[in-house]
Queue: 2 jobs
Job 1
Amino acid sequence: MQVVIKGVKLVSPHQKLSKKADLLIVDGIIQKIGDLSKEELKSSTVYDFEDKYCAPGFYDMHVHLREPGREDKETILTGSNSAAAGGFTGIACMPNTNPAIDSAEVVLLIKAKAAGHLVDVHPVAAATLGRKGESLAPILELHEAGAVGFSDDGVAIKDAGMLRNVLEYSSMVNAPVIEHCEDVSLSHGHMNEGFNSTKLGLPALPSISEDLIVMRDIMMAEYAGGRIHIAHISTKESVEMVRQAKKKGIKVTAEVTPHHFTYTDDALKTYDTNLKMSPPLRTQADVNAIIEGLKDGTIDCIASDHAPHAIEEKEVEFIYAPNGIVGLETQVGLAFSELYHKKHLTIEQIVEKFAINPRTILNLPVPEIKEGEKANLTIFDPDVVWTVDKSKFKSLSKNSPFDKRLLTGKSLATVNNSQICVGSEISKI
Amino acid sequence: MSLSSRHLLGLSGVPKEDIQLILDTATTFREVLERPIKKVPTLQGKTIVNLFFENSTRTRISFELAQKRLSADTVNFSTSTSSTKKGETFKDTVRNIEAMKVDMIVVRHESPGVPQFLTQISDANIINAGDGTHEHPTQALLDMYSIREKVGKLEGLKVCIVGDIGHGRVALSNIHGLKTMGAEVSLCGPSTMMPRAIEELGVKVYHKIDDAIENNDVLNVLRIQLERNAGASIPTTREYRTYFGLTSERLKKHNKDVLILHPGPINRGVEISSEVADGPYQVILNQVTNGVAVRMAVLYLLGTMH
């Protein structure tokens, strides 16, 4: 099949590519970039995206699909549909499923279920068996089966001794160890500790519970080797530690979620359980530090920490509600609204944080917009104004605090694996 | 005169006029409680549900008596008989109760924010009878009533709340209410029992009980929750008694009149000695009586709003 993506502004910073062109795609391969002839246009299905941007497909390296285990909240298929609609052509799914992704069989099951979709799904496997922090998961076998990183996400690797083993062992395959940084001995709470938690009377978890583990992990990565990736960084102090560690040449990278650069814990005065997540929303000083970290490259990428939960699980008393929100279909809009339109990041920087850096961290090839290459694209409009409507989410879950929020910027289409998703409808090309 | 909100969720943000109105109305009902027939027909035909998801004997009885004395129809729901144990969600439980046509809900729950949550899922007037470690507004109102009854005013008074500030709900409501009424509020207790950034509410913090006694007109002594704190926030109850316990020797040393309140139940010999708890400066049982009058006032003012 032959399609044309017409009139787009190509933006692919790792190729130093920035120009306006038409793309001729035949059987999923970019055949031609440039002005197309009348005949070529005539014999193709034309998608007119005049003056919209076209970048290498975006990648979300922190997604919770609930399959296997809680298919009522999200399946591999519905999560992939949600990703495609939100602007992503690839996702990494975290291992806190039931059973956990700690055997090659589960990795292969996920890959088999994901096969044939527009969205590439790469499992992140558990670092330790059952994510319990007691014995190493079969990291080499998991890697061979297709796991792209290792994490006990939901919790940090339990103790420093086990962390050392995971770092040393995973360094043999150069895979990142993705850490949810939280010292559980300090965190028996439900929101950030500070004046707001005191006013709201909510048991709280202090930012230092994150900082202590970030410090431990960075020091261990320096000592033991291996690579540490800090998931959903949320505090000022942690951003500074990552900055200094990078200066010292320690192999550490970091991601941030859109909610951690959009909201502060001031928002919790409504006791909206859709604002309950781990790590919790922090303070304005933390948000400012995160934005600085995004600007100077301390924070490498933006990831949603997409965490689907059923309505009946979230519509409960605050302290009983589970942590997490869905984010795949709002994060591109939030990134453009909060980072581009507020002049913190350029379009190129946003493309780096969405498309290039996450794949580099996971040792995945970064798509190029080049004749002869597979078409793996995200087409977006940074200026379109739209209102979030959670009832239209492709995700099975609707636990979003951003419902009815006005956003500026949106993904219009994604292309990958010989398929195109326009809006949220996927078709073969 | 009527209140500015149809719910009583807490004392944070409640205007001075509202608190004044509740306290003044309580004075009228306090007089009713001294009559041989302690009942008025004010809330006849109103249905009130006491939704108690946490054990509470005295608060529930106080509310129930207040409701009965206003001639309302009351139903009690407590966790031991609740359907939440059968896996029903809080929301479904509330919707079911609501479907039986109730006018007001009094709620006690271990999760902060539940009264706010109730306003979203129910049309009834909501009264917070304690939500976790957040607020307990009627307790603070009855504390203020008892102080005013004894001293004659709240404005300009120096009131210190002593004890476990962070694990309780009484302190926060008292801080909000007393400050609104023009009192000067301070706290006293071990640093592990002070919530983070509490000073930002405009309160002074003492770590020496003698300083607290010396500098205040009123001490509101909170219960130390033995089961929860030993080993975590304080080493032993003995150490707490030694350094923070209110004893008559301590009071005598300062040679001044200090009014003593305690919301109960008392741990005699821990936060307060028996001598002080039964002594001339305390109003502990007055608080209990006043509690019924204050709750009658709140129920009346909310139940007759249009």
Job 2
Amino acid sequence: MQKMTERAEVTSALRIRNLSKSFGQTQALDKVSFEIRPGTIHGLLGGNGSGKSTLIKALAGVQPADHGGSFEFLGTTVSADHMTPELSRALGLRFVHQNPAVFPSMTVAENVAIGASFPTTAGKIRWKALRRHTQELLDRFEIHARAGDMVGDLRQAEQTMIAIARALQDADENAVSALVLDEPTASLPDHEVEILLDAVRRFAAAGHTIVYVSHRLDEVIQLTDDVTVLRDGRHVVTRPSEGLSESGLIELIVGHSLEKSYASAQAAPAPLGAPRLEVRNLSGGPLRDVSFDVGRGEVLGIAGLLGSGRTELLRMLFGDLDREGGTMTLDGNAVEFAEVREAMGTGVALVPEDRNREGVFQGLSVRQNLSIADLGRFTRAGRINGTRERQEVRQSINDYRIKTADDAALISSLSGGNQQKVVMARWLRRKPRLLLLDEPTQGVDVGAREDLYAAIRASLSDGMSVIAVSSDFDELAQICDRVVVLRDGCITAELRGKDITRQQMTHLVLASGKDAA
Amino acid sequence: MTMVKEAKHFANAPKGSGSVNWTEFFERSGLILLLLLVIVVFAILRPNTFATYANFRSIATVQPVMAVTAIALIVPLIGGRFDVSVGATLGLSAIVTASAMSHFQLPLAAAIGLGVLAGALIGTINGTIVAYLGVNSIIGTLGIATILGGVVTGYTNGIPISSGLSPILTDISIQSVLGIPVLFLLMAVIAVAVWFVLTQTPYGRNLAAVGANADSARLAGIRSKSVVMRSFVIAGALAGIAGVLQIGAQGNAGPQLVGITFILPALAAAFLGATTWQPGRFTVQGTIIGIFFLGTTISGLSLVGIQPWITDVFNGAAVVLAIALSAQLRRRRTGSLDIGS
């Protein structure tokens, strides 16, 4: 290690030096170095795949970085490949994620104690002492709640604040080197965001150093003292937030200047004749007045951040989530789905986001997993024709290049990519008119990914239409004919043809439109 | 690199043919081998009492009621739910059937119909409580079982109904065709019917899907609540049939069989069955093998002269061991072991 200058020792709470992390041939982080001043709010920004999450995981010790990098916390230097969660905590780092792990059916005091420890005398909890400690904590951070309140009854912003207070309770200002807030406002309702931001300011005013990760640029500009921008695993800049504009920040995140393209949703009509799907003024959950068309054989991408309403949109189209208003027209007929079965009946299919939780049936065979959505086709007089089922399933295993010992093998014996192919094949076998894809290649290796794309392409030539949601903007750029941008439940832009690039999409999902020229 | 990983995965997947996989063989047929072992051991120990046609005939006459009860249990179990009220439902149906003949002079067919209907009705209540009111199935059906026990005792004053019963039914335990007890044949018919529903119909497939993953099932368009509801109705109707058979096996309808200890062997058999045939899954075949393994062992033990309390210890131990074993198999299939609920 080279000797640090005196100045750095006093002026940085956290210093990151030469941090690298590679996954195979992918360089997620490439020699990133920057420092965070004590007592400041430091924004950490970057698009999808910029290395932001990798950096946070390295800091937390959950996923150690490569040899050669180091962290320095208030003067203590730790080699980046030796970081562990315990060490990270001992060095005074605290993390609060966007869905804080609070227990809604327990009181504030119990939630606070679970983060540290319950005060006890001979094994019995000293409730009075705990309540007093909790109330002090709530007063110190000006959280409007009482120790005895049920956490589930509080607003989401307050729940997050309690998670923050819990993380900070055991330490005075000197022992905590930094508090990392990872997209704390992503799933908060608009009117609660300001409440949380005020609280963050108070935490900082109390002397805490805060690393603030967010995609809401307007928020970052008004809240932070400094910002660091990462792009493609590299450090782009660390500078004071003062004087930064939203468009300036976007330029730093995306890499080069882009002319503003707020293409209106009523541009040219869908390419091939009458549209397959017309959605008008769809509202419900986070969605407000969403309108768009999907043409026959078209792939429409939905670019949006977490919390933008992208998953809810697909769920509503599939009849799995109630809508509050708006109309849907499929091939000219108005449709209203009270349940998934009705959506399936009119030729809509959904490949869900979380394969393990909502896609596959672990414990059942590949065959049973494949045929579950169209058993009716093999059933005569109430009996499944096993021979026909096996034949067709084997055909699908061939067609979709599913790597399995045979159709009777358990689905759990397949790799993640092949399990995803099974789920995709389950729906494509039904020859849907409209296929809804939610993160279709998440956790899928490159080979399987190409197979999945090939399967989708084959069905497109038969006239199927697709709506695809993905956090991987490169993927959207590769498979979509058109992309609409969803932000805070509204469609804010539309991209076509060669305008569909990761940079454009990153730009548009980040831009609030408030300083749009 | 990706390709290598894929190929390795592929190679590790179970092979259907080729070299004999002994682990798999013992896993699939372990219980059958154990049953054969038990028969051989007791036949050597008690050649004059155990290894006789009369003894095997007795086992084949006594066990069918328990076998049908166990088959009733596995239907909701495949959907991930317990019905611990099948014993009480069996008792109620036996009393309803006997009472219809004895107190109301109804013909046998009508009495049987009422008994099975009563079972299906209890199943409907259980299903509604579990599927539509969201009550934990063990607790909900335990509550119903307790209510039924009270009602049956109140109706009968604790006295068995033994007069005025159709001799066609009460003599069934001594009837046989080609040396095979009629009760055993009836059990076989019911077993085939349930096997058909569970493995050859869309309903059976949907039930397995709900049991495997309720969220995936919902997004595959399966009406999970209705599927679970119907599994309880089927279990109730089967328990009703078991109740009618019980009159035949015992010659009367007693109010004492509604307790939970009565179904313990059935529960043990269901879980033992899930460790064999298709390990990790509840099957009709496995369940029947489980019942006869338990029944034969207990018959042998009693002929060796073991104290009656050993039976309780044996049944209790069998149920715990069988459930522990099938939980381990489940972990191998799905990769995770949950805390028991």
